[in-house]
Amino acid sequence: MPQLLPLRQAASLLSRSARTVRRLIAAGDLPAVRIRGRLYVKRDELRAFIERHVEIPPS
């Protein structure tokens, strides 16, 4: 079973607000599941999102 992160914890790990993470979810950029009205992000999906959006500065 995948580990689910509450919206606020996912936001904290991304160093973004919960509102920003909600926008990412609404835009389809970050998959999430809703359980009893609350949003959760799968840890693996969050990791994949970060890997897709990491920018390594040129050396």
Q: What is the topological layout?
A:
Layout: E1 4-6, H1 7-14, H2 18-26, E2 33-35, E3 38-42, H3 43-53
Antiparallel strand pairs: 1-3, 2-3
Keywords:
single chain, 59 residues, alpha+beta, three-stranded antiparallel beta sheet, 3 strands, 19% strand, elongated
Number of helices: 3
* Low-pLDDT residue spans: none
Order of helices and strands: EHHEEH
Radius of gyration (CA) equals 12 Å
- Briefly note the structural class of the backbone: alpha+beta
Distance between the termini: 40 Å
Describe this structure in words.
The protein is of the alpha+beta class. The protein contains three helices and three strands. The protein has a three-stranded antiparallel sheet with strand order 1-3-2. β2 and β3 form a beta hairpin. α1 (7-14) packs across α2. It is elongated and about 45 Å long. The protein starts with a strand and ends in a 6-residue tail after the last helix.
